[in-house]
Design a protein that fits this description.
- This protein has about 100 residues and is α+β, with helices and mostly antiparallel strands.
- Strands 1-2-3 form a 3-stranded antiparallel sheet.
- The relative contact order is 0.15.
- A hairpin with a 4-residue loop joins strand 2 (about 40-45) and strand 3.
- It has a domain at about 25-95: Nucleoid-associated protein YbaB-like domain (Ybab, Chain: A, 2-Layer Sandwich).
- The chain contains 2 helices and 3 strands.
Length: about 100
Amino acid sequence: MAGMDFGKLMKGFQQVQERMQKLQEELAQRTVEATAGGGVVTVTANGRQEIVGIQIRPEVVDPDDVEMLQDLIVAATNDALKQAQAMVAEEVARLTGGLKLPGLS
């Protein structure tokens, strides 16, 4: 550890932390969409991995087959969350230069 400049190291960590905060704010505004059933169900998620919208085309609503609609919603939701996670991971990797930091990706 001889010759290591802890002040410089701490400043670098602080800069990364500030950039991460800004990135989190930006990702909250970015969205991804996923569809199921050929586009009859669309789910929108943001970079905080929150579902911010669900669109269901009327022709898929069948009172006699609610289970199919539920399955389509689950499939589109899972896909949207996976896309949101991938978007976050890509941006974190870009910010950290590929360095894996616990809890950030």
